[in-house]
Amino acid sequence: VFISDTLQIIPTVTPDSATDPSVNWTVSNSAVASISAKGMLIGKTAGEVTVTATATDGSGVKASIIIKVVPKPVTSITVTSVSDTVAIGKTITMSANVLPIDATNPAVNWSVSNGAIASVDASGVVTGIAKGKVNIIATAADGSGISGSKEITVIQFVPVTAITVNSAGNAISV
């Protein structure tokens, strides 16, 4: 079962004609998982837990099962930004949409396909270095191997050289 997910544990009591077929549930390590009176297990942290069902009729009959609780891995990453271009010497911030939303470790590591054209920092901020196209890549930090990318074009920075403001037919140069 994944961390934060649930798993219904179902006891099979024999004989079918048992007067009191109810059971009490216990787990060997409540830090790893918990279980409700109805046998609903919730994973809390990575590890193994032994779940035991004990007959409530005083017979002492019990049965156990070992359940492994594992981190919920990232299954997809979509990389987005407000623009597909960045000028040389300027920056643009990338975002990573990680699924599932409740992945145990939704962090990503950022990288760039060509460091001579652009750089990217740990927060996804891309800086244009030279004209060209690069892929900005977000890779899941959970070890799942999942990644997503977006192509960004680095363009030459062209500064503003003049501004003209018009008012009631008069032009003023700045």
Q: Write the element-wise H/E pattern from the N-terminal end onward.
A: EEEEEEEEEEEEEEEE
Strand order, sheet with most strands: 7-9-12-11
- Estimated share of beta-strand residues: over 45%
Total DSSP E strands: 16
Radius of gyration: 29 Å
Low-confidence stretches: none
Classification by helices and strands = mainly beta
Rough outline: rod-shaped
Q: How far is the first residue's CA from the last residue's CA?
A: 67 Å
Task: Explain what this protein looks like in three dimensions.
- This protein is an all-beta fold and 174 residues long.
- The chain is built from no helices and 16 strands.
- It has strands spanning 6-8, 23-27, 33-35, 40-43, 47-55, 62-69, 76-81, 85-87, 91-99, 108-112, 118-120, 125-128, 132-140, 147-155, 164-167, 170-173.
- A four-stranded antiparallel beta sheet has the order 7-9-12-11, with no helix packed on it. The protein has a four-stranded mixed beta sheet with strand order 8-14-13-10, with no helix packed on it. A three-stranded antiparallel beta sheet has the order 1-4-3, with no helix packed on it.
- The mean pLDDT is 94.
Q: How would the blueprint of this fold be written?
A:
Layout: E1 6-8, E2 23-27, E3 33-35, E4 40-43, E5 47-55, E6 62-69, E7 76-81, E8 85-87, E9 91-99, E10 108-112, E11 118-120, E12 125-128, E13 132-140, E14 147-155, E15 164-167, E16 170-173
